[in-house]
Amino acid sequence: MSQKDKYNNLVQSIKDDEEKEKEQNRFDATLEQTKEAHSLARKTLDATREANEANTKTLKGLNAATQSADNAITGICGAIVKAQQTPVKTRLDDESLKQLHDSHTQWLGQEKQTLDDHHRQQEESWQKHSQRLTDIVKNNEGVWISTKLFYIVGSLSLLSIITIAIEIAFYVYFHWIQ
Description:
The chain is mainly alpha-helical. It has helices spanning 3-85, 94-138, 147-177.
């Protein structure tokens, strides 16, 4: 074997070693990624198990709440049915009728007294207002206008109020309702 062949074999051997080293580095990187993926998968599996356990507990709680609500509704319905089936006894004898008549007469007397008091208060108020108007007329106080002017001003005021009310109604209809 010649020197050149030895040299070529040595170069080839170095290249093969470098290739093996690169291959080893790639294998190490792949192994590290695989370990990380395995760790992540284990964590995900643990989290999934915990979530499943939590869901199971929640489901049991919801089922218990549903059963409790059903029991409460059944109890309420039973109480209603029992109340509907309970007979109510009433009697109306002469003594009860007399007591009812006396209570009604007493109530009517109170209402009559209240109405009389109200009527008296209205009379007093009417007298005070009448006296005040008489004093105003005697002293020539206030503003006096002719009947014709009163009807003109009153009509225009009424027309203005109606127009404003219609405008407000249209505004509300077109801006708030639609």
